[in-house]
Amino acid sequence: MTIALVVLIGAIGGVLAGLFGVGGGIIFVPTLALVLGLTQLHAEASSLLAILPAAIVGTWRQRRYGNVDVRAAAVIGAASIIGVQGGVIVAESLGDSTLRRLFGVLLLGTSAHLIWRLRRGS
After folding, report:
1. Whether the Cβ atoms of residue 11 and residue 17 lie closer than 8 Å to each other
2. Stretch 52-73: mean pLDDT, rounded?
């Protein structure tokens, strides 16, 4: 049951990554935490590793269509290395409940922003 569920989670995350450029945080983290019972910290850490194959294949496929700005991606990637180090330090210092709430706020904020942009028509 667990293996089949993990495969399903991966497939859904892969489809969303291919369609929208998302998947890891939105699908993997809540599912790993709520369905499989991982702590928020373990779900986030596992999600970071799990998204690598989808990111590699998605980038390869999108690059074939000329949709990848390599320079922008390289700058964002380099800056994210520094950011993720700081994020891990903060995440390790927070309790699971606080980390889960902050993740929920991030999802709600992202959703609100997308709805706001949609209503503005941009």
Report:
1. no
2. 90
